Write the structure tokens for this entry.
Amino acid sequence: METIMILSVIIVLLFGALVYTLTKEQRQLIDDSKAFCSDYSQYPYDTLKAGLIGDMISIYENYQLNAIKTVQHIDSESIILDLDKVQKFLYHIKQGVKIHSKNLEKEKLGLRFYYAAYPKKSTWGQGLYEELGDLLESPITQNYEDKHTLVIVPIRENEQGEVVDFHPYFPDTYENGLNKYRRPQELLGTQEIDQSVFAESEVMALTGTSIDNLEAINHGGLYPPHNSRKLAFKN
């Protein structure tokens, strides 16, 4: 009987050790998976004084915005983005890099903000700029034509220390970046649609409302035409 009890205790202890080991390994896997999504709670918020923000916006209004308005009379002055959708965008960037990176701990990632403008409304949808077709459904967003927006593209630092636009799920872009887009010569200076083969290339990018033909969802809105009453830095 004593032998059976001793064996039972040993089995229980071994089982407990095995469970502990598996749990420890599982915890390590969980820790490893979370390591790339670092906890920044120990770091303070990045802040700017309201005076600096206000002055920088005023400078933009007095120079760049006024110059734009002399050409087209009105332009967007701010862009809103849904935080949840931005977080999803960042999540997929990090997931792609976690899968394809050769040295995850040394990755230096970021976002590049391209200044951009919406094309003519007549080109939205109908097999042309299909990603913009849903803007026609709203009396507000259908006024985005010609207005200023942003396109946000993921970037990384390659082995040569160069910052390149890249696609997180296409490792061939990690070193040399995305292929450079060159608008066809005959379309330069026009709002004609580029329907060349290169224009179909997949680029992961986030804009004020719509993105290229990969990971594409609508994201936000422009002021104007959206209401401005709650803008802290607008008259």
